[in-house]
Amino acid sequence: MNITLRIWRQAGPDAEGAIHEYQLHGVSEDSSFLEMLDILNEDLFARGEEPVAFDSDCREGICGMCGLVINGVPHGNHSPDPKDNATTCQLHMRSFKDGDTITIEPWRSKAFPIIKDLVVNRNALDRIIQAGGYISVNTGAAPDAHATPVPKKDADRAFEAAACIGCGACVAACPNGSAMLFTAAKVTHLGLLPQGKPENLRRVTQMLNRMGAEGFGGCTNFGECSAVCPKQVPLDFIAVLNRQLGKAVLSGV
What we know:
Keywords: Iron, Iron-sulfur, Metal-binding. The chain has helices at residues 33-46, 123-131, 152-162, 169-173, 180-191, 200-213, 224-228, 237-251; strands spanning 3-9, 18-24, 69-70, 73-74, 101-105, 114-116, 119-120.
């Protein structure tokens, strides 16, 4: 495949950025998207040019480290069926055609400042989790598997919430730059389990306050967050979070 790449280049947080165009020839359709970028960087390095900086780690779709906006879509998820969504590292070049022009940009959010090129600082998501604090329940040593019964429905929902890998695609897709789906997943995960219930309402208010302080926008129910989520975190978790917030307000937490 012969492709044209239009890539956002920015030398540092305070530098001006711009789209730079590159030609890449003979790319295998079996290459992953990140392998294609590796090939580009090898070419740039051989020519004495600065390689493109981008995030990656496991390259298995489980760590949430990779994150690129590809042709205007976070992770490059083009399928109308969210079940086919995947992280950038699981996107392959067979999803494109010979002669295509591909535009690659970083996550765009006030809360995700650019470090260099396609790399952004996503520590704001970690600080939202930290604001939730610890659980106070003394769980002791590992209990027997069925020592604390959890209803099957709650266990399944908690598992859905725990699937969130914190990649930030929901933020990048939201017109408001909201982290509501991420926050809802983290709150719901613990709120459905026995050890997470004592601090549940306090956790809701503290995490939402932190989300606002970090510069994330508010949720206005566009639904783009869930549409691009590579782990199919359900949109209705936001409704769950809003209900919990209402209980917290009424309880004076």
